[in-house]
Specification:
Length: 175
């Protein structure tokens, strides 16, 4: 009787439990910062359109503001970039909430080294790398129940481009 129980009931349960030990990886585990290289300052709109077919002009003035989307896995998230005199001056990406902050932040540290500045206010942190691939990279992450990234911004640290900074424009809109 015991052998029958072991053979027909207990053994299949052990086999099922053994296969249930699957590895679960976060959605941004294989995301690479290289996806933003298309939008690095100095690149042109034509270079962006080679990679991203749907590029939308949002505002046209001395500085043109464009929007497109980056696709990762099955999700899309927006990226905004400004062009002045035919070249990108900065980019701003609103990162998806399903990304894990710890993994994304660590990937930035692995790529650019420890951040130069850090600010934490009410559970939202800001990290600044002053010389990351010749850019000033600003990254923000926040924590509620879990921690997730909010945005990443890249700009060439010159006086002209800093005057047209996308983050400052957003700050002006919110005032």
């Amino acid at each position: 009787m015991f052998k029958i129980f072991l053979t027909f009931i207990f053994l299949p349960i052990l086999i099922f439990v053994n296969t249930a030990k699957a590895k679960v990886t976060p959605k941004n585990y294989d995301f690479t910062f290289d996806k933003f290289k298309t939008f690095y300052p100095g690149k042109t709109l034509e270079e962006v359109k080679k990679v991203h077919k749907e590029v939308e002009l949002i505002k046209k003035s001395t500085t043109e503001l464009y929007r497109t989307e980056i696709t990762h896995v099955r999700y899309k998230f927006p990226i905004y970039f400004q062009i002045k005199d035919g070249a990108i001056i900065d980019f701003y990406a609103r990162l998806p909430n399903y990304f894990i902050h710890d993994i994304f932040h660590q990937s930035l540290i692995n790529r650019f080294g420890k951040q130069d500045k850090f600010l934490n206010k009410d559970g939202t942190s800001f990290y600044v790398w002053k010389k990351a691939d010749g850019l000033k990279i600003t990254y923000s992450g926040t924590c509620t129940i879990t921690c997730f990234p909010v945005f990443v911004h890249g700009i060439k640290p010159t006086k002209d481009s800093l005057r047209e900074n996308f983050l400052d424009k957003m700050d002006d809109v919110l005032k």
